[in-house]
Each structure stands twice: as structure tokens, then as C-alpha cells.
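Before surveying the methods themselves, let us examine one representative protein, pairing a chain with its fold in C-alpha cell form.
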Amino acid sequence: MPLPAITAILTPRLTVRPVAGADLDDLLEVNGDDAVTRFLPYKTWQSAEDGRAWLARMEALDATGTSRQLVIERNADGKVVGTVLLFRFDEGSARLELGYVVGRAHWRQGYAAEALLAVCGHAFGQLAVRRIEAEVNPGNAASNALLQSLGFVHEGMFRQRWISKGVATDTNIYGCLAHEWLRGNRAA
């Protein structure tokens, strides 16, 4: 069975929902910033064409049933401020991986924490996921701290795990189990 579709996950300030073509202008602001993409595995977007190519890749990935590309939309004005990717869904192990990004203009406003709290609660609850994993560059202090604040456990570091933008990079591995999430009252 594929990863179930997600229509919308609501929080007090945000709606986390599937990406659409109309989101690309806002996402160009997010992904067109070198400071934002510094730790991401893809190059900074230079044009609307980069966004369309990314969307085509995300739609193809979604069609496999192993991922869902979502956007973080601010309820007050409909502005898309970032993305959340649920991917590498393994039905037999009831696990998936988590990726996310928020535009620099929206940093330090709690949007990532609010969105991830809701998405993880949904994954552990309605989607019946048993384990969520995330990989983070050790140099990305904000992302490492965010995951730990949400109850993810630092499980180790893989040395030179990825080649990103021509450089071999280490990656911190984080995991969170459903029973830990629920025990921590994190069911969003």
C-alpha cells in the first residue's frame, strides 16, 4: 500500500498541504536563497524553470507512493513559507524519512516547529507510521536543535555520507518512534 495522500494538516497559524504549481513563485523565494539551500542536497534555484523542474521531480516521486511533498502555508495571508517532504516510506517497516525547509524571511518565527509537530503527529497517528528518521548536516545547528526539541533522538553520525554540491559531508541521524512521540504528548 502506498503512503496515503495528505489533503491538509491545520495548525493555529499554518496549513500543511500538497504542493501545487501555484506555489512555485513563493518557493522560488525560499529555494532561490543560498543561505537557505546551504545545507540542502540541491542547488539554489536560479529561475522559475528550476522550480518547474523540481515540481516535476516531486510529482514523479509522489507517483511512486513512497513520498508526499507538502508546503507550509501561512493561514493569515496564504503565503507559502517552506516545505515538508515525507519520503522513503517503507510500508513493511512502517517508517519514513522527513525533510523540511523554511525561507530565511520566516526563520525564528516557530513555523518549522509548528509544521513539523503537526506533520509528525499526523504521521504517527492517522498514517500509523512507527518510525520517522531525519538526516541533518552537523553544521546546521538550527535544524539539529529543532529535531531534538521535538523529541527526536540523535542516533549517530555517518561520516562523509553524501556528496552535496561537490563536497563530501557528514550527516547526523535522528529518529523518533511512535511510542516515544505519544509518551511525550506530541500527538498533534
